[in-house]
C-alpha cells in the first residue's frame, strides 16, 4: 500500500534527522512523472548522504525495493531517488529554498510527516 511505503520512507528520513518532510500526491494533477514526490532537507552534505543511505537501506529491507535511478549522490546538494511511483528529493536547505518544488506543485495534495511519539525501537520492545 502506497501510504505504508510513504511512511516507511518518511521514517527513514526522520531517523537521520531529515527536516520538513512532505509528500506530494501528483496523481490528481495527471502528471506522467510519478505518483508521489517526497521532499525533505538536511543540514549538510553529510546529513543529506546519511538520509539517502538510510532510505536506500530501509526501502530494501522493509519494502523490498531498489531505486530505478539515483542522482546527486556524488555531491549531496540535491539527491534524487527514483522508486518509480515515488520520487524522493533530499536537499540541503538552501537548495530546497531556491528550487521550491512544493510551490511548483502547489495544486497537489500535500502531507507533512513528523517523528512518531514513541520510537519504533520502543514499540518492538513492548
Report Rg.
14 Å
Kindly state the number of beta strands: 6
CATH architectural designation: 2-Layer Sandwich
Query: Do you know the CATH topology?
Result: Beta Polymerase, domain 2
**Backbone shape:** globular
Q: Strand sequence of the main sheet, in spatial order?
A: 3-4-5-2-1-6
Tell me the major beta sheet. Answer: 6 strands, mixed
By CATH reckoning, the class would read: Alpha Beta
Quaternary organisation: single chain
Helix/strand class = alpha+beta
Number of domains: 1
As a percent range, the share of helical residues equals 25-40%
CATH superfamily: Beta Polymerase, domain 2
Low-confidence stretches: 122-126
Overall mean pLDDT? 91
Beta-strand content estimate:
25-35%
Amino acid at each position: 500500500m502506497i501510504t505504508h511505503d510513504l511512511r516507511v520512507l518518511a521514517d527513514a528520513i526522520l531517523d537521520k534527522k531529515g527536516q520538513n518532510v512532505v509528500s506530494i500526491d501528483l496523481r490528481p494533477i495527471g502528471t506522467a512523472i510519478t505518483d508521489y514526490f517526497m521532499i525533505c532537507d538536511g543540514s549538510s552534505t553529510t546529513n543529506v548522504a546519511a538520509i539517502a543511505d538510510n532510505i536506500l537501506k530501509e526501502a530494501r529491507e522493509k519494502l523490498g525495493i531498489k531505486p530505478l535511478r539515483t542522482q546527486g549522490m556524488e555531491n549531496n546538494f540535491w539527491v534524487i531517488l527514483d522508486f518509480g511511483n515515488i520520487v524522493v528529493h533530499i536537499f540541503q536547505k538552501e537548495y530546497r529554498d531556491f528550487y521550491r518544488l512544493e510551490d511548483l506543485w502547489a495544486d497537489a495534495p500535500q502531507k507533512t510527516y513528523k517523528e512518531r511519539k514513541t520510537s519504533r525501537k520502543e514499540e518492538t520492545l513492548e
